Give the backbone structure.
Amino acid sequence: AAFVVGFSLSLSSTPLILQLLAERNQLRAHHGRAAFGILLFQDIAVMPVIALLPLLGANGETTSSSPLWLATLKLAGVLLALVVGSRVILRPLLRLIARTGSTDAFTAAALLIVVATSLAVREVGLSMALGAFLAGVLLADSEFRHELEADIEPFKGLLLGLFFIAVGMSANLGVLIAEPAAVVGLTVGFMAVKIVTVFAIGRAAGNSSAVSRRLALALPSGGEFAFFLSGLAVSSQILDRHFADLLVISVTLSMALSPILLSLHELLDRNLGRGAAREFDRIEDSEPRILIAGYGRFGQIVSRVLTARHIKFTVLEASEAQVDFVRRFGSKVYYGDASRLELLRAAGAAKAEILVLAIDDVEASVRTAEIVRHNLPRLKIFARARNRQHVFRLLNLGLSHVIRETYGSSLEMATDVLEALGFSTSQARETVTRFRAHDEATLDRQYSVSEDEEKLLQTARESARQLESLFEADAAEAKKLNPDA
């Protein structure tokens, strides 16, 4: 019973937490990636426990007359049969159905496989839910995984909603009314234990205190598997109904408190935690020729080229998670906000020759460029822009070296595509070169009317027609020179 309760409370709600992190744009942050990894491992760890519970039963025996060793042997036999059957029967069957081209038939076949697997697992005294889980794993291991995922996507939200409705209906509110102290004590107790434990794990994994704290506060609640495991434990005579009801209401309460706790932490971080926030790094007294502001994909590539030529540079990055992550690989990056003039001066901006502005955030990028232009006018700025509007804002500040981040790679890809279609290398390069010249001229025209949306759209349409006419004229001229081509 202690094992069931401890394992159930250790789990967190994958859909709830991923949704909370996604709403806050934190899934790709350091603590967001760590939270996703933990949730994924938890979901995988549930499978053997679901298989184990019916085998325990009361006093270590199964609920049927079969001894434990025989039930375990049956389970192993079923698992082996499912794995072998998926290779011998499942995949050929799915290939046969895929040839029909019918999406409905494909979806029906997937449901049939799930039901059949669940019934087969139930026949050996195990949970049908375990069978459904195993069927999902087997289907995910096939080459039709993405096709099946797309087919069942419309059902996912509906079924998840039904699941939580069933969970809500299973919560016995009478327990909360009758034993409020026990419910609150259990809820606060296990949430506190999880916060402390996950924080310690985060620190042991080498994360900073801030990242570990955010990770711990993202995972304090219980999860939906606790509802299922408690019901399975009751049917297996491991837990009594009253304690299972206490467990369910406590987990439900923790899931309601988790978003509130995360929001309060963010509020305190913004309003009260500024003085206790991590200080920007002290930068060594050096005279770099180049400063790099922002150390994402763009900034890293620039720095690697400079390193290959032994050119000294200093990197400033405002994301502490990114700084800690990159430093593990030996890169010399300083934590700091490049839009702060005193930090730029400390980094040697007064003596540097070039600032590579590679900050992801558009507002932070423009703000940094503005401060440098006003206070360090001799420092040349080579800026990376995310889109045309970003380009216009940087040009308004008087910058002359602005590069659109995906522009060059897109033109390289276009060149390769033309060559693959049969164009000669010279023809492909000439086409792309002319397109580039035309596009840059269009950008200049659009910049002059960037404040007028209607004129901006009109310029774009005119530019497309001009480019089409230009290549049509080229084709006509080539036809005259070589009629047989």
